Amino acid sequence: QVQLVESGGGLVQAGGSLRLSCAASGRTFSSYGMGWFRQAPGKERELVAQITSRSITTYVDSVKGRFTCSRDNAANTVYLQMNNLKPEDTAVYYCILVAWVGSGWAPVGSWGQGTQVTVSS
What we know:
Elements: E1 3-7, E2 10-13, E3 18-25, E4 33-39, E5 46-51, E6 57-59, E7 67-72, E8 77-82, E9 91-100, E10 105-108, E11 115-120
Parallel strand pairs: 2-11
Antiparallel strand pairs: 1-3, 3-8, 4-5, 4-9, 5-6, 7-8, 9-10, 9-11
C-alpha cells in the first residue's frame, strides 16, 4: 500500500506561483501513473494533471500552460508547479495513483488529506 502526503499549499495572490509536492512511502510508485486532483467548495473533485510512469503528462484545459506536473522517481515524489494562479484555482489539492480505465484516468487507493491552495484576487 502506498501512503501519500501532499504539501506546499498556501495563500497566494492572483498571478502568483506555488509548487505542490506529493511524497510517497511504503512502496515505490515509479511504475504507476499519478494524478493531481482538486476539489473546490461545493464542487466535485476533478483531475487537473496526470503523469504516466514515463513522465508523459496531460492537463485539464483550464490549467494548460500554467501548471506543470513532474516526478522524481528516485525521491518517490510528484510535483505540481502552478504559475499564474487564478482565484478559480482555489481548492484542496490531492495526489493519488491513477489507472487508465479506457475512458480516462481513475484514482486508485485511498485519498490523503490534501493541501489547501487559496488564491486571492
